Amino acid sequence: MKIHKNDKQILLVLVPHRDTRVELRKYSDLLLKAGLTGVYQFPLAAPLASLSQPLNANELKYLTRSLRENTGSGKITAAETSITAFPPDGKDTLFGPRLDSTVLINMFGDAAVKIKNLFSPLIIGTYFVPDSSSHNLRLIEKIPPVLLSFRAGAVANMIWQPFQAGHDTGYKWKIGKLCWLPNVKRGFTNIKNM
User: Fold this and answer.
1) What values do phi and psi take at 148, rounded to 5?
2) N- or C-end of the chain: fewer Cβ atoms within 10 A?
3) Is 139 within 8 Å of 35 (Cβ atoms)?
4) How many domains, in total, are found in the chain?
C-alpha cells in the first residue's frame, strides 16, 4: 500500500452525537440504494477548517465553548443537502446535510494562526466524491434531504489521507480525541470570562 504523504490533510471536524450518526447512516444507505456511484464514505463529521497543525486540548475546549455560545441553547440543524469543495481549495467535493451554523475565524481565539481555510458551507460529510459527476449531482437533487437537529456534538482533529493499493485508490482517516460541546442544561462559562 502506497500512502500519499504530500496529500495528507489535517482537519478540524464537528462530530454529531451517535444518535444523530445512526440517522446519517440510514440516509447514506438510501443514497447508495438510489444508485450513487464512484463515491467514498466519509466519517459522518462536518469539516470546519483545514489546519496547518492540530489544535491542542485547550484550543479545542475554547472552540467548543465558542461554538456553544454561537448556538446558544438552540440546536444545530440541517434541512437540506449540499456540496462543498474538499479540501477547501481542491477540485473534489464532499456532500451531505448542510448545517445551519457558521464558523468564523474569531471563534478560534489564539488558535486562529493554525487555520489554513474555513469550510463553507458546513456539511456533515456523507460521501466524498473525487470527481463530481453530473449523474451523482442529479441523483442527490432527487433524494429528499435528511432532517437533523442535535445539541450534542464534539470537535476533534482529523487526518484525511489518500493511499494507493495496486490500481485502486482509497482514503483513510483518523479522528483524534473528542472534545464535547458544553452541556446546555448545566450551563457553561462565557468564553470572555475564561
Assistant:
1) -125, 150
2) N
3) yes
4) 1
Instruction: Give the CATH number for residue 164.
Output: 3.90.1140
How far CA 32 is from CA of 2, 4, 25, 146, in Å, comes to 28, 28, 11, 14
State pLDDT tens for residues 57-74.
Answer: 999 999 999 988 887 667
Does residue 190 fall inside a structural domain?
no
Residue 193 lies in a domain: no
List, in sequence order, every beta strand (DSSP E) within 124-187: 127-129, 148-150, 153-165, 168-175, 179-180
Beta bridge partners of 121: none
Integer Cα distance of 107 and 191 in angstroms: 10
3-state SS class at 191: helix
Burial string for 19-47 (b: 16+ CB within 10 Å, else e) reads ebbebbeebbeebeeeebeebeebbbbbb
Measured CA angle at 189 (ends 185, 194), to 5 deg: 160
Cell of 136: 451523482
Average of per-residue pLDDT across 146-174:
83
With a CB cutoff of 8 Å and minimum separation 6, the contacts of 86 are 47, 92, 93, 94, 125, 128
Note down the domain range covering 156.
Answer: 2-184
In a domain, residue 59? The reply is yes
Flag whether 147 is in a domain.
yes
The model's pLDDT over 102-146, given as tens digits with 9 standing for 90+, comes to 888 989 999 999 999 998 888 888 888 776 555 666 666 677 777
The model's pTM: 0.83
